[in-house]
From TrEMBL:
<dbReference type="Pfam" id="PF07681">
    <property type="entry name" value="DoxX"/>
</dbReference>
<feature type="transmembrane region" description="Helical">
    <location>
        <begin position="97"/>
        <end position="115"/>
    </location>
</feature>
<keyword id="KW-0812">Transmembrane</keyword>
<feature type="transmembrane region" description="Helical">
    <location>
        <begin position="46"/>
        <end position="66"/>
    </location>
</feature>
<protein>
    <recommendedName>
        <fullName>DoxX family protein</fullName>
    </recommendedName>
</protein>
<feature type="transmembrane region" description="Helical">
    <location>
        <begin position="7"/>
        <end position="26"/>
    </location>
</feature>
<dbReference type="GO" id="GO:0016020">
    <property type="term" value="C:membrane"/>
</dbReference>
<feature type="transmembrane region" description="Helical">
    <location>
        <begin position="73"/>
        <end position="91"/>
    </location>
</feature>
<dbReference type="InterPro" id="IPR032808">
    <property type="entry name" value="DoxX"/>
</dbReference>
<keyword id="KW-0472">Membrane</keyword>
<keyword id="KW-1133">Transmembrane helix</keyword>
Amino acid sequence: MKIATLIVRSLLGILFLYTSVSYFLHLNPEPATTGDFKAFQVGLVASTYLIPLAKTLELLCGLSFVTGKFTTLANIVIFPVIINILLINYFLTPESLPIAIGIFVANIFLIYSHWENYKGLFKMNG
């Protein structure tokens, strides 16, 4: 289980580092978009803060996953971003859905592998 966790954590970290660094350094051209996804993307870009925020979280969590530091926190911080990636792909770009499902499953696996660290979140006080 430790080796699988290390591999999944490293791959997810490298993926997040690559996508965030590519965004900030403009390493890849923007893919052409059409239809509903284009309208959605125009709205995200118009917000001026949402994409840079998501890419900053991806960068920080990617660093966390690659270094192995604060991974319990990174799993929770990146989870809403991954849910949005999954839902955007499901509703607007279903051809990319397998990648989104893979990222979601990888995050769930990492949460499961660190479950002892999350038990305190679900305790009932009283």
